Amino acid sequence: TSLLKTLESRWAKAGARVGPLWRCSAPAAAMKNFMGAGDGYVHVKVDTVFEQLNTRFREDLVRKRNHIASNGKFNGFLVLLILLNTVIIGVEVDNTRSKNIEDNLVFFAAELFFAIVFCVELLARLHQLGWDYFLDQWNMFDYALVGLSIADLVSSLTQPD
After folding, report:
1. Are 104 and 96 within 8 A, CB to CB?
2. Per the confidence metrics, is the pTM higher than 0.85?
3. When comparing pLDDT for 34 and 148, which is higher?
4. How many beta carbons lie within 10 A of that of residue 11, not counting itself?
5. Which helix (H) or strand (E) holds 35?
6. Is the separation of the CB atoms in 69 and 77 below 8 Å?
7. Is 17 a residue whose pLDDT tops 60?
8. What is the pLDDT of residue 100?
9. In which order are the strands placed within the sheet that holds 23-25?
10. How far is CA 70 from CA 34, 37, 118, 120, 137, in A?
11. Are 128 and 67 in contact (CB under 8 A)?
């Protein structure tokens, strides 16, 4: 309805008379931006509800582009943390002999740190993209990894000695 109101106000300013739903008649000069079919009406393509729901506004695009999650330094920092986490996991696997948290406190603290950082990254991307976050398969993979990391921490804390 807001689209039709916008079109009606545009046409009214141009001297057009709005017809039923998506047809109107107007002087050709006033309607130069719209396609005519030669039947006395100007046919205007009205977006479907689904197309209107997926409309991207300039303000939203600028907000997403300027968001911290789009920053190259932020993403570079996260790549370094992912590589560091990989190295620490490798060292932990090679050097861990016990399953007690007390014996592996350094590794547990590192795992907790990385889980918090990656959870903050996930929240930043969710804030940037909203529900569109879940449309990208890599984001779903990241979401699953963060969830598994949190589940691993919880199981490490609640595991009996």
Report:
1. yes
2. no
3. 148
4. 21
5. strand 35-36
6. no
7. no
8. 73
9. 17-18, 23-25, 42-43, 35-36
10. 37, 45, 15, 14, 18
11. yes
DSSP H helices, the chain, are: 2-13, 49-53, 58-65, 72-95, 105-129, 137-158
Which residue matches tokens 């990656």? Answer: 118
154 token code pair: 């919880």
Q: Would you state the structure tokens that stand for residue 63, as one six-digit string? A: 């907000």
* pLDDT (tens digit per residue) in 96-131: 777 777 778 888 999 999 999 999 999 999 999 888
Q: Which H or E run contains 18?
A: strand 17-18
Which residue, chain included where needed, has tokens 């879940």? Answer: 134
Which among 38, 13, 8, 9 has a CA at the least distance from the CA of 24? Answer: 8
pLDDT tens digit sequence for 42-93: 556 666 766 666 667 778 888 888 899 999 999 999 999 999 999 999 998 8
Tell me how many degrees the CA angle 126-131-136 measures, rounded to the nearest 5: 80
